[in-house]
Structure formats: structure tokens, C-alpha cells
Amino acid sequence: MNVPIDISNVVIKTERLILRPWKDSDLQDFYEYASVDGVGQMAGWLPHKDIEESRQIMNRFISEKKTFALEFNGKVIGSLGIEEYSEKEMPEYSDKLGREIGYVLSKAYWGQGLMPEAVQAVVKYLFEQVRVDFIACGHFTDNHQSMRVQEKCGFVHYKLVKYETHYGQVKDCWISVIERATFNSKV
């Protein structure tokens, strides 16, 4: 069962990052990374065509109150959303509270361990503050970087599904899961 989420007053600080709600002043940073070829496709969307497209999506992030901006040295370099998981794809979890996370990072910051740092912080927040029982996270089978992030954070492959991207391509996607019991045993 999907638990309600509202991160509008949540700020999480890690060693190098600040995870916080989006602000209007983040628009240029968002467009800067979201318009780069190869970034969005890893998450199922095409590069933003113009700053107006970024503005519309950022405004949705703000109004929906479920997506963190990832700030590094005063610059927004990515996002991490707390989405509803597909209850249809995961019937075994119907009696448990959960959510799904998804993330994107500016290409300029790949390979620095920033996304595992952000994911671990949000996993801790969801288990300790929101009190979910499990968290799902997906990655396309050809997205080895996202697979590694999930492995580093304790997610385990659960189910292979077909996923239709925002640009109409159907791709194989692993849904991975971490449960609170597993998370607690690592603390």
C-alpha cells in the first residue's frame, strides 16, 4: 500500500549533499543537467528541449511535494523522487506500507558516489521517519550505474518487468526492493 508523502518541509543533509524541496531559483541548474543527452534516457525521459519544459516539470516537483532537489556546493545537480510503486506489479506487498524511489544525476557528477549517498539518506528517512515497510526502485537492464547504486544501498532484485518510457520505447526494467528488516540489520 502506498503511503502518503509530503517533503515540503524536509531537508536532509549528508556529508556532501543537501536534499531539499525544489525552489524557483533552481530552474537554470535543472535545465543545465536535464537538457544533456544521455541523462534522462537512463530514467526513461528525453532531454529537455528548452527551459520552459524544465520550468513545467520543476513546478510539478514543487506542487507534488515528493521530489528532492540534490544540492552540491550550492548547485542543484540532480533529483530524487519518492513515487508511488505499482501495486499491480507487486501484489505480495499489498499488506505493507511502501513507496518507490527514482533518481537522476547530472552527467558531470557521475562516478563520485553522490547518488548512493543521496539514496542511502532517503532510504533512512523513509524507514525511520515515514515508517515504510519497504522501498522499491527500478533500473533498466542496460543501466549498470543505477544497478550499482541500488546494490550499494542494499536493494535486491525482485522482478523483471516491461516499462514503457516517456518516449514510447518498451524496455526491460528490474524492480528492486529493500525492506525495513534488512535495513535495520545493517545499522
Observed structural traits:
187 residues, alpha+beta, eight-stranded mixed beta sheet, 8 strands, globular
Question: How would you explain this protein's 3D organization?
Answer:
With 187 residues, this protein is of the alpha+beta class. 29% of the residues lie in helices and 29% in strands. Helix 1 crosses helix 2 (51-64). It is globular, with a radius of gyration of 16 Å.
Structure summarized in a few sentences:
This protein is α+β, with helices and mostly antiparallel strands. It is 29% helix and 29% strand. It has five helices and eight strands.
What is the radius of gyration computed over CA atoms, rounded to a whole number of angstroms? 16 Å
Oligomer: single chain
Number of helices: 5
> Low-confidence stretches at least 5 residues in length (pLDDT < 50)?
none
Order of helices and strands: EEHHEEEHEHEEH
How are the strands ordered across the major sheet? Answer: 1-2-3-4-5-6-8-7
* C-alpha geometry: globular
- Strand pairing plus helix content: what structural class? alpha+beta
Biggest sheet, in brief? 8 strands, mixed
Number of E-state strands? 8
What is the CA-CA span between the terminal residues? 25 Å
Helix content: 25-40%
Average pLDDT rating: 93
Estimate what percentage of residues fall within beta strands. Answer: 25-35%
